C-alpha cells in the first residue's frame, strides 16, 4: 500500500468463513516444526489457553495471559485469542488491541489513529503517572519523524529519504560482511562458547550505524552508552534526561562539524538534504539520528537473534537454507514474519473508529499487534509453521504505508549477511544447554543472551 492510501480505515467487515468478522481457521499454538524440529518455547511449554473459552470470558483469559510468564516465553497463543474474539479486546486500563491482519493493515494507514507523540503521551498521562514522565522525555527528543502525523510526517520523510537512500545502504554490503567476519573471528579465537547476542547480533548493527554516522571509533562506546541509557526508562527519568543532554550535545557538535566540512556519511547527507528550500532543523537532525539509532540497533539485534533461534528450533528449515544459500532473502522475510522484533506499536484515537460492533473513541490508546497479524490464518496459510519457501507477500513487521520502517532495507541486509555467514561458517551450530534469556518488554521481543555451540 503506498503512502497516498491514507484515508482508508478499519471498518466492519461481512461475517463469513475466514473473514475477520466470522468463523476463523484453527491455528496451532507454538508453531512447532512439523518436519523434524525438537525445539520448545523459551521456558515452560506453551499452555493450551483455548480449552476454557466455552465457559470463561475470553477477555479475562487474555488479561491473565498478557501478564503471565508464559506470554514472555511464547506470546502467540495469547495473540490467537486476541484474533479470535468477535470484537477487539480492551484491557482493564482501557487500551484496545487490534490483532487481525486486515484490521492492523488498515489501522496503519488510518488518519483517525494518530502517531503524534503529544497525543499519545497525553493519553498515557490520563491513565498513569508514568505518562507524565514519558511526556517530559518525548518533548526533549523533538519531532522524531516516526512520531508525527501528516502533513509534518510527509515533510520530514521527504527530507530524510534524500539522505537514507537504497544506494547508500547497498554500498554497505562489503563493510557489513567485514564486520560480521571480524566479530566471528574474534569470538571463535577466544575458544569459548558463542553468545550470539553479545558476540555478533548486538555489536554488528551498532558498528554499522556508527559507520553510517561517521562517528570516530574512540567516541563510539560513550555514544552507545548514552543511547542505551536513553532507552531504559527503568533507570529513572532524571538519569535518562542526563543521557539525553550528553547525546544531544555530542551530536550538536557533530552536526556543526558536518555543516562546515561535509563528509561521505549520513549526517552530512541529512544536513545537505533540501526540498524547495526546506531543510531539517538542528533539532530535527538530532532527533532523526536518535530514531535511526533506535531502529538500526535494537531492531536488527533482535531480528538476528530471533531468526537464528527459530532456525535452530526448526532443523529441517535450517538444512534447507544451508543447502540453498540463495534462499537467504526470502528466509529473512519469513523469519521476521514468524517472530518479529517489534511485536506491537501504539496509536492514539483522534476521531471515532467504529470496528466490529465497538467504537474506538478519541483519547483511547490502541495497540496494533503486528506479530499477531503476521500469524493470522485468514492471511497466511498455516501461519504457525516456519516455511522459508513461503511466497505470500511480505508481513507487517516493518509497517506499511507512510510509516513503513525507513531502516527496513538495512535491517534486512544485516540479517541476511549475519545469518547467512553464521550458518555457512558454523554448519554444526546448535543451541547450548540452558534457556535463552528474553527481554521483559512486551512491545519489543528479543533475546539478551543466546548461548550456542558449534
TrEMBL record:
SUPFAM superfamilies cross-referenced by the UniProt entry: Cytochrome P450
Compositional bias ranges of the Low complexity kind: 24-59
Domain of life of the organism encoding this protein: Bacteria
Region (Disordered): 1-60
Gene Ontology molecular function terms on file: heme binding; iron ion binding; monooxygenase activity; oxidoreductase activity, acting on paired donors, with incorporation or reduction of molecular oxygen
Record flagged with keyword 4Fe-4S: no
Keywords, sorted A to Z: Heme, Iron, Metal-binding, Monooxygenase, Oxidoreductase
InterPro entries membership: Cyt_P450, Cyt_P450_B, Cyt_P450_CS, Cyt_P450_sf
Family: Belongs to the cytochrome P450 family.
PANTHER family to which the protein is assigned, alphabetical: CYTOCHROME P450 YJIB-RELATED, P450, PUTATIVE (EUROFUNG)-RELATED
Protein known as: Cytochrome P-450 like protein
Organism: Streptomyces cacaoi
Amino acid at each position: 500500500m503506498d503512502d497516498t492510501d491514507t484515508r482508508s480505515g478499519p471498518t466492519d467487515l461481512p461475517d463469513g468463513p475466514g473473514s475477520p468478522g466470522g468463523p476463523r481457521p484453527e491455528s496451532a499454538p507454538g508453531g512447532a516444526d512439523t518436519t523434524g524440529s525438537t525445539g520448545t518455547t523459551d521456558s515452560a511449554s506453551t499452555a493450551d489457553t483455548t480449552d476454557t473459552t466455552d465457559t470463561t470470558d475470553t477477555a479475562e483469559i487474555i488479561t491473565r495471559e498478557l501478564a503471565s510468564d508464559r506470554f514472555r516465553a511464547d506470546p502467540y497463543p495469547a495473540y490467537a485469542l486476541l484474533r479470535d474474539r468477535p470484537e477487539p479486546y480492551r484491557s482493564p486500563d482501557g487500551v484496545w488491541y487490534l490483532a487481525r491482519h486486515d484490521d492492523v493493515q488498515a489501522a496503519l494507514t488510518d488518519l483517525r489513529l494518530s502517531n503524534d507523540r503529544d497525543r499519545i503521551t497525553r493519553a498515557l498521562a490520563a491513565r498513569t503517572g508514568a505518562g507524565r514522565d514519558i511526556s517530559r522525555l518525548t518533548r526533549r527528543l523533538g519531532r522524531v519523524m516516526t512520531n508525527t502525523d501528516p502533513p509534518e510526517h510527509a515533510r520530514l520523510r521527504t527530507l530524510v529519504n534524500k539522505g537514507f537512500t537504497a544506494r547508500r545502504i547497498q554500498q554497505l554490503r562489503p563493510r557489513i560482511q567485514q564486520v560480521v567476519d571480524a566479530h566471528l573471528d574474534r569470538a571463535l579465537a577466544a575458544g569459548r562458547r558463542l553468545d550470539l547476542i553479545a558476540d555478533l547480533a548486538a555489536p554488528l548493527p551498532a558498528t554499522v550505524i556508527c559507520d553510517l554516522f561517521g562517528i570516530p571509533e574512540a567516541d563510539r562506546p560513550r555514544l552507545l552508552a548514552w543511547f542505551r541509557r536513553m532507552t531504559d526508562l527503568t533507570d529513572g527519568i532524571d538519569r535518562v534526561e542526563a543521557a539525553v543532554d550528553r547525546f544531544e550535545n555530542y551530536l550538536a557538535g557533530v552536526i556543526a562539524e558536518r555543516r562546515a566540512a561535509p563528509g561521505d556519511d549520513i549526517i552530512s547527507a541529512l544536513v545537505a538534504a533540501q526540498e524547495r528550500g526546506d531543510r531539517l532543523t538542528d533539532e530535527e537532525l538530532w532527533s532523526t539520528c536518535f530514531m535511526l539509532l533506535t531502529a538500526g540497533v535494537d531492531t536488527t539485534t533482535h531480528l538476528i537473534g530471533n531468526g537464528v533461534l527459530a532456525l535452530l528450533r526448526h532443523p529441517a528449515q535450517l538444512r534447507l537454507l544451508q543447502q540453498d544459500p540463495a534462499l537467504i532473502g526470502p528466509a529473512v522475510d519469513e523469519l521476521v514474519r514468524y517472530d518479529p522484533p517489534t511485536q506491537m506499536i501504539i496509536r492514539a484515537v483522534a476521531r471515532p473508529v467504529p470496528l466490529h460492533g465497538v467504537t474506538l473513541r478519541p483519547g483511547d490508546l490502541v495497540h496494533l499487534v503486528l506479530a499477531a497479524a503476521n500469524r493470522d490464518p485468514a492471511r497466511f496459510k498455516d501461519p504457525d509453521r516456519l516455511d522459508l519457501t513461503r511466497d505470500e507477500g511480505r508481513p507487517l513487521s516493518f509497517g506499511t504505508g507512510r510509516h513503513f520502517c525507513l531502516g527496513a532495507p538495512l535491517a534486512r541486509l544485516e540479517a541476511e549477511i549475519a545469518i547467512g555467514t553464521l550458518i555457512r561458517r558454523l554448519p554444526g551450530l546448535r543451541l547450548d544447554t540452558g534457556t535463552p534469556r528474553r527481554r521483559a518488554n512486551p512491545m519489543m521481543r528479543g533475546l539478551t543472551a543466546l548461548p550456542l555451540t558449534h
